[in-house]
């Protein structure tokens, strides 16, 4: 392609970019003008030219010069800047972020654009490095610089053109800074692991180095070698072994197969109790597709987006009734031996008895006499033929001691890392520090998993600390659940009011401000808040009073977070990225800087606060007469804890106005709840416990089951009431982009196993799934007079069969699909917790727009942008829940560590080689394997009755079945392989 540059009268140079767009089988040539400039700076403080000649941008801002005048030096003493190619940016992002290397780094626009197209998360991390500026990263817009922009040559691939563009930038920096222009001579080092790019750069006379060569040239090289990704080192192809897994299908075959319906795409879910069994749900089949065995799983990780191919019907199987755990592997043997892996699965992971049981399952699937019953249990099977999107992230684990070679030489050796997540395979890393890392929690990243390797290859990132230390375990669970916990950046904190802790409504209320004039003064209302004990981030408060006409005025007042968190600021972007606050046992990871949550926005008593209020007039039966929405000013009279409010309401000697207001609220909340239940709202359960921490030592003290009071329900009902009213208002105003929350009805297959259990073990009991009302009524009927806890147990098990609720923009579904199954309401959102949920921040902005308080930002009126927002907050919300549960699990384990106790438990799953028992007192569940209960050779598993018979350790015949109440000794033990503490249950 010819370079057709033309200089305009303005001094800009214009050229053309040509694109080919294909649509409906046709091709269209598109030509766009591309403007070039001669004043794009190099951003170096060493430069004598740019700092004098650079011009302001369109906003009148002078670009900030970041590259240091005294950059870091190589081992030979030479100061240097670094330019990287796309390969390094994509695969060595951990090294780029490391505090030990990579300072004064130039990211060309070419690299940034390529990274954005390949991996948006890594693109975001690069942008974060540029914004942070501690490491002095800059983006150089080479594609708009007249001297560095290049045109693609004839027959040149896009990749080759981009590589040449990066080399052109390296050449330009060399000439620009080292030709009588720089205050000091600076080496420009081009780091690339692309062999062709490296060779061409060398031939052009550039200082090109591979990543390993660059690391070796640094003073602290030895400590950095472990962080070099294995998939971009030159010896990657030299791994011993032979092809073990099928090669993935080509892109053309995948696209064609999905189009003609022979291939299916979905998310892989590995079984909790059998690491060799996975499932993929696809719309074409009522039941999930089963993926059985390591070959069919074909190197896929749990949560990967995979493409699968259906297996012949004669290979369809039932889900396995045998527990198979990778953590039961014995010695790994030679960590470099690729040929022994498959044998491990047959001889080490699975015992002789378990292999016999698996064989019997396979035989029964093809020769059972009860064909009709078997057909009902069969599931279609498939094999993974491609990975569409990897779920790889930071993983936390510990080095397996048996994989560490007894070698004192300082040579990098392969070893295995056993991950905390037991659904994931072990990872092979190469390190010099294996022996000193034993007993430590370490962070690793997966680099690749080739078809000739039994294990994925990864590299070491950093050490968190000793296994079981509170600091290391807490950081580990945050990393495992992808929770952002780093301190807020300077750019985020700069968005806060300058007076910070001293900010008050009085000092920041301008009567001449049109927005302030729109606020309604509600400081005369008897407002109070009711929250958990010691709550400091108070985002909701309530009031109620009787009106002269006999009706009631009820108000829900929510912290006006959006007064401080303005759209399109760094603070808003950070809140959107984090999505939610995360509550752990011993700490809180805030979505917003602490000063907002605990002071400026918190509806603390006795001080004026900005709020967003929903005010209803309701009749005696809690029917809405009218509802108003307004930005307001309130002054809370009291901050109650749940128990404190309950005591005050119940105390008949207390008859002050505030207490009477709370009694009105309690009475109306009961009527609201009664209506919800009649409409079919579900009352489900989870085994929730609370861990009490010692105030002085911060050590876990005791565990108790959470007790809910009437005041808990009071607050919940009015928060639901507000969320429903707000949802209707914003949907009326923004029919395509209103931020809503839905809960889909569970498919009948989700409850199939639970209903089979009820039919087999509890005659006459069954759960009806025609509607949420039918399910709620059937749950109420499933009572066991001999065991009051059975109904709670059933509700816990039913919760696990439900679909997950999700946020969505209203234009993504038809109105009937807005339905919230659990709450039995046609439309719903989250409005009441903007301090800790970003969804609520968006809803506040939409509600402010709906009532005409202020113009709604474009990002919340654009359907595509809203889709991006909800995708992230759904993920963050889910991760926060898992992180919170993991924190409770860890501290419960610490409480039980030295306190073995006898407890009641309930069997919730039954396999042919063990049972799973839930212990309500601690909210934990544990697996009891058959060999720890009795003679495995005598066992008989009745799959239809969910019953396991065996001879126990004392020689007695014993039967265990689902829903049985059992007594167990409970204590906490550390898993020798993963280092993770878990509940060990021993049957009494």
Write up this protein.
The chain has 988 residues and is of the alpha+beta class. The protein has six domains: 1-36; 43-228, Rossmann fold, CATH 3.40.50; 251-467, Beta Barrel (OB fold (Dihydrolipoamide Acetyltransferase, E2P)); 490-739 and 822-886, no CATH class; 745-802, no CATH class; 897-987, Nucleic acid-binding proteins (OB fold (Dihydrolipoamide Acetyltransferase, E2P), Beta Barrel). The protein is 29% helix and 25% strand. The protein has 26 helices and 39 strands. The strands form eleven sheets. A five-stranded parallel beta sheet has the order 6-5-4-7-8. Strand 28 (689-693) and strand 29 (700-705) form a beta hairpin. The longest helix has 34 residues, at 863-896. It is globular. Mean pLDDT is 86; it is low at 234-239, 329-333, 338-349 and 365-369.
In short:
Residues 80-199 form the PIN domain. Helices cover 29% and strands 25% of the residues.
Describe the sheet with the most strands.
5 strands, parallel
Looking at the structure, what is the overall shape? globular
Bin the strand percentage. Answer: 15-25%
Low-confidence stretches: 234-239, 329-333, 338-349, 365-369
């Amino acid at each position: 392609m010819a370079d057709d540059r033309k200089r305009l009268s303005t001094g800009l140079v214009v050229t053309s970019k040509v694109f080919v767009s294909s649509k409906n089988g046709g091709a269209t040539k598109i030509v766009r003008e591309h403007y070039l400039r001669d004043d794009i700076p190099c951003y170096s403080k060493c430069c004598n030219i740019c700092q004098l000649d650079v011009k302001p941008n369109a906003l009148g801002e002078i670009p900030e010069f970041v590259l240091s005048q005294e950059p870091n030096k190589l081992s030979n003493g030479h100061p240097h800047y670094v330019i990287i190619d796309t390969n390094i940016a994509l695969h060595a992002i951990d090294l780029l972020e490391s505090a030990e290397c990579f300072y004064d780094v130039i990211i060309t626009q070419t690299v940034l654009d390529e990274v954005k197209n390949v991996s948006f998360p890594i693109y975001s991390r690069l942008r974060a490095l540029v914004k942070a500026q501690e490491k002095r990263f800059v983006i150089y817009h080479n594609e708009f610089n007249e001297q560095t922009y290049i045109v693609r040559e004839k027959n040149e691939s896009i990749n080759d053109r981009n590589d040449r563009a990066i080399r052109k930038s390296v050449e330009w920096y060399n000439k620009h800074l080292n030709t009588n222009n720089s205050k000091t001579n600076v080496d420009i080092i081009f780091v690339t692991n692309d062999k062709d790019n490296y060779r061409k750069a060398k031939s052009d006379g550039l200082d090109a180095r591979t990543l390993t060569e660059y690391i070796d040239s640094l003073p602290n090289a030895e400590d950095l070698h472990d962080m070099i990704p294995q998939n971009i080192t030159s010896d990657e192809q030299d791994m011993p072994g032979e092809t073990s897994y099928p090669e993935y299908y080509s892109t053309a075959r995948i696209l064609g197969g999905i189009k003609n319906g022979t291939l299916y795409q979905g998310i892989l879910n590995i079984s909790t109790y059998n690491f060799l069994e996975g499932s993929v749900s696809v719309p074409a089949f009522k039941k999930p597709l089963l993926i059985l065995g390591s070959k069919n799983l074909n190197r896929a990780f749990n949560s990967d987006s995979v493409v699968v191919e259906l297996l012949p019907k004669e290979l369809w199987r039932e889900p396995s009734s045998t527990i198979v755990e990778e953590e039961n592997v014995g010695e790994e043997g030679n960590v470099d031996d690729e040929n022994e892996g498959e044998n491990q699965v047959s001889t080490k992971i699975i015992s002789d008895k378990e292999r016999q049981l698996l064989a019997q399952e396979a035989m029964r699937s093809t020769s059972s006499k009860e064909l009709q019953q078997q057909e009902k249990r069969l599931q279609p099977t498939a094999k993974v033929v491609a990975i569409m999107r990897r779920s790889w992230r930071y993983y936390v684990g510990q080095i397996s001691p048996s994989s560490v070679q007894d070698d004192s030489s300082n040579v990098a050796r392969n070893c295995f890392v056993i991950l905390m997540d037991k659904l994931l395979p072990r990872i092979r890393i190469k390190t010099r520090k294996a022996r000193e890392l034993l007993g430590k929690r370490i962070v690793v990243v997966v680099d690749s998993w080739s078809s000739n390797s039994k294990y994925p290859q990864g590299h070491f990132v950093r050490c968190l600390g000793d296994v079981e230390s509170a600091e290391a375990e807490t950081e580990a669970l945050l990393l495992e659940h992808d929770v952002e916990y780093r301190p807020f950046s300077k750019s985020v904190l700069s968005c806060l009011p300058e007076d910070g802790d001293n900010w008050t409504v009085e000092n920041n209320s301008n009567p001449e401000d049109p927005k302030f004039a729109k606020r309604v003064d509600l400081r005369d209302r008897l407002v109070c808040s009711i929250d958990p004990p010691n709550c400091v981030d108070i985002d909701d408060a309530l009031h109620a009073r009787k009106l002269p006409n006999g009706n009631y005025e009820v108000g829900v007042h929510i912290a006006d977070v959006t007064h401080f968190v303005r759209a399109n600021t760094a603070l808003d972007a950070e809140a959107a990225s984090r999505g939610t606050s995360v509550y752990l046992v011993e700490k809180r990871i805030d979505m917003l800087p602490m000063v907002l949550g605990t002071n400026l926005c918190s509806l603390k008593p006795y001080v004026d606060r900005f709020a967003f209020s929903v005010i209803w007039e309701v009749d005696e039966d809690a029917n809405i007469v009218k509802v108003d929405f307004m930005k307001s000013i309130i002054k809370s009279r009291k901050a109650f804890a749940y128990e404190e409010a309950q005591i005050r309401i119940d105390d008949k000697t207390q008859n002050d106005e505030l207490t009477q207001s709370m009694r009105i609220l309690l009475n109306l909340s009961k009527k609201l709840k009664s209506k919800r239940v009649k409409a079919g709202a579900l009352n489900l359960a989870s085994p929730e416990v609370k861990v009490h921490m010692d105030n002085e030592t911060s050590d876990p003290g005791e565990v108790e089951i959470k007790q809910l009071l009437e005041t808990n329900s009071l607050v919940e009902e009015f928060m639901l009431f507000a969320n429903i009213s707000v949802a209707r208002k914003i949907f009326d105003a923004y029919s395509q982009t209103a931020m809503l929350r839905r809960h889909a009805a569970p498919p009948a297959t989700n409850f199939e196993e639970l209903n089979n259990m009820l039919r087999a073990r509890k005659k006459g009991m069954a759960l009806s799934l025609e509607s949420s009302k039918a399910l709620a009524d059937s749950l109420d009927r499933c009572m066991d007079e001999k065991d009051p806890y059975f109904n709670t147990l059933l509700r816990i098990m039913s919760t696990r069969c439900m679909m997950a609720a999700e946020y969505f923009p209203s234009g993504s579904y038809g109105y009937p699909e807005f339905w919230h199954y659990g709450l039995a309401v046609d439309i719903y959102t989250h409005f009441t917790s903007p301090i800790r949920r970003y969804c609520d921040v968006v809803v506040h902005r939409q509600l402010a727009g709906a009532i005409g308080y202020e113009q709604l930002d474009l990002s919340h009126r654009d359907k595509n942008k809203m889709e991006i927002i909800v995708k992230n907050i759904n993920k963050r919300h889910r991760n926060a829940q898992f992180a919170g549960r993991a924190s409770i699990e860890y501290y419960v384990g610490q409480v039980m560590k030295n306190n073995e106790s006898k407890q009641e438990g309930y069997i919730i799953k039954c396999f042919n080689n063990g049972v799973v028992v839930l212990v309500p007192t601690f909210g934990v569940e544990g697996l009891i394997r058959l060999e720890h209960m009795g003679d495995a050779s005598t066992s008989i598993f009745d799959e239809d009755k969910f019953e396991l018979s065996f001879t126990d350790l004392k020689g007695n015949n014993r039967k265990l079945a689902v829903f049985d109440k059992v007594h167990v000794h409970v204590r906490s033990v550390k898993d020798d392989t993963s280092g993770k503490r878990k509940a060990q249950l021993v049957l009494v």
